[in-house]
Amino acid sequence: MPDEAPLRVLVVEDEWPARNYLVELLHASKLAEVVGAVADAESALGVLAPDGPAIDVVFADVHLVGSERDDAGLELVRSFAKRPNAPLFVLATAFKEHAIEAFSLGVVDYLLKPFTDDRVEQCLRRLLARRPNRPLGAPSKIVARKKKGLVFLRPDEVWAFEAADRLTFVHTKRGRFDLDLSLSAIEAAFGSGLLRAHRNWLVNPEHVRELQRDSGDELVVGDDDGLRVPVARERAQAVRDALLADATGLRR
User: Fold this and answer.
1) Terminal-residue alpha carbon distance, the chain
2) CATH of the domain at 59
3) Final residue of a domain: which of 130, 156, 174?
4) Are 158 and 190 found together in one domain?
5) In what order do the strands lie in the sheet with 167-172?
6) Same domain, 120 and 154
7) DSSP output for 84-146
8) Co-location of 55 and 151 in the same domain
9) For residue 200, how many other CB atoms are within 10 A of its CB?
10) Which of 87, 108, 130 is the C-terminal boundary of a domain?
11) Containing domain of residue 33, as a range?
């Protein structure tokens, strides 16, 4: 993963030892910066106010002592579920029974206590893959070659980038076009917005229609006449995690 700004995190946890430990794990990962750590939903709403600091992710416990509701942390998630530009949410709790509703509300991950450094890092990498904002300076358009002419593409038009025969191609509904940049340069430009499925393929996850697992993992990308993109064995789990990060419908 290319270098990018760490996630700006708010921790909402009423138990001081658990709150402190989670903050330590987040900082130790070097993937996150804890902007605030509070004990109740009311304080969290104060931090998340429009004039408050920028927050990418909220780690919230379900049960918060001193709150009127037994599921105050989950209610916090509900209150932001349909808001535009809302932060991503992770439930960090000792209780399993809220997972189905949490994922239906768009919660990205569900951390069960006791937390571990490996599990927290896995969660943060999943969050980085889903962060909606492009890296600073990411291009707003892509210029490709079509014979002697140029083609101008929006990033959201792109199905995938492919490296083959020492050339680089961009695949879209409008066709396949030549690029002058390497896959590494493209990945550095767009950061976590693209999914590295194979050393020769970068995929736009918004255009992935299927993950097929008959004889080796393969992605179906684009429309009915779209692409078949191989998934490298060593990348299979990371690709699956990224595609399921903001999805519901499967038992976790």
Assistant:
1) 25
2) 3.40.50.2300
3) 130
4) yes
5) 149-153, 142-146, 175-179, 167-172, 158-164, 201-203, 195-198
6) no
7) TTPPEEEEEES--TTHHHHHHTT--EEEESSP-HHHHHHHHHHHHHH--SPPTT--S-EEEEE
8) no
9) 15
10) 130
11) 7-130
- In three state form, how does the secondary structure of 26-72 look? HHHHCCEEEEEEECCHHHHHHHCCCCCCCCCEEEECCCCCCCCCCCH
Cα–Cα distance measured from residue 208 to residue 226, given in angstroms and rounded to the nearest whole number: 10
Q: In the chain, how many domains are there?
A: 2
90 strand-pairing partners = 59, 109
Strand partners, 210: 220
Residue 200 lies inside a defined structural domain of this protein: yes
Has residue 252 been placed in a domain? Answer: no
Name residue 178's amino acid. Answer: D
Long-range pairs, 81-86, Cβ under 8 A, ≥24: 81/105, 81/106
Residue with tokens 């530009």: 85
- Return per-residue pLDDT of the chain as tens, 252 residues: 444 678 889 999 988 999 999 999 999 998 999 989 998 888 888 888 877 778 889 998 888 765 556 677 788 888 887 676 788 899 888 777 777 777 777 888 888 888 889 999 999 988 888 765 544 456 778 999 998 899 999 888 999 999 998 899 999 999 999 999 888 888 877 766 788 899 999 999 889 999 988 777 899 999 877 799 999 988 888 888 888 876 777 765
The CA-CA-CA angle for residues 130, 136, 138, to 5°, reads 80
Give me the pLDDT at residue 2, please. 40
Place of tokens 């270098």: 3
State how far the alpha carbon of 161 is from the alpha carbons of 30, 54, 172, in Å: 29, 32, 9
